[in-house]
């Protein structure tokens, strides 16, 4: 995944993730997004997902912030790779943002949802 290109997520996957975060309120969720051919394809809240057995690779880690913005700290991104953060803190709107650590600081990536 090239660090400066926009990320593309299928609409059905974005809806699934946002729905899971919404029904879990006031609790947060955490999980992983798998990819096939470098394209995000699945979401799981299960720990220890065997992506190879599913024909996938890890695309991103995800968590939700039911009462806080979708902005992580550098410590929250310390594991490396791509992170998705869902916020339910905005009235009537669910927000999902993508982040990675660059130069020791959170760097936001653009997510485009498409059919």
Summarize the structure.
It contains 1 helix and 8 strands.
Major β-sheet annotation: 6 strands, mixed
Strand residue content = over 45%
Give the overall silhouette: globular
Order of helices and strands: EHEEEEEEE
By DSSP (H or I, 4+ residues per run), the number of helices equals: 1
Give, in spatial order, the strands making up the sheet with the most strands: 3-2-4-5-6-7
The whole-number mean of residue pLDDT values reads 91
SS class: mainly beta
How many strands? 8
Question: What is the radius of gyration computed over CA atoms, rounded to a whole number of angstroms?
Answer: 13 Å
Low-confidence stretches: none
> How many angstroms separate the termini?
20 Å
Helix coverage percent of residues?
10-25%
Q: Which tags fit this structure?
A:
globular, mainly beta, single chain, 6-stranded mixed sheet, 115 residues
Written account of the structure:
It is a single chain. Strand 2 and strand 3 form a beta hairpin. The mean pLDDT is 91. The chain contains one helix and eight strands; from the N terminus they run E-H-E-E-E-E-E-E-E. It has one helix spanning 11-24, and strands at residues 7-10, 30-36, 39-44, 57-65, 83-90, 93-102, 105-109, 111-114. 12% of the residues lie in helices and 46% in strands. The chain has a domain at 58-68 and 80-114. The strands form two sheets. The chain has a six-stranded mixed β-sheet with strand order 3-2-4-5-6-7, with helices on one face. Strands 1-8 form a two-stranded parallel sheet. The protein is mainly beta and 115 residues long.
């Amino acid at each position: 995944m090239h660090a400066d290109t926009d990320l593309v997520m299928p609409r059905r996957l974005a809806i699934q993730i946002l729905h899971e975060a919404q029904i879990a309120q006031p609790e947060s969720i955490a999980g992983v997004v798998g990819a096939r051919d470098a394209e995000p394809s699945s979401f799981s809240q299960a720990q220890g997902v065997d992506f190879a057995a599913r024909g996938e690779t890890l695309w991103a880690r995800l968590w939700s912030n039911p009462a806080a913005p979708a902005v992580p700290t550098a410590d929250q991104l310390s594991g490396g790779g791509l992170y998705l953060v869902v916020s339910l803190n905005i009235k009537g709107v669910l927000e999902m943002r993508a982040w990675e650590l660059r130069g020791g600081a959170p760097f936001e990536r653009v997510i485009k949802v498409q059919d």
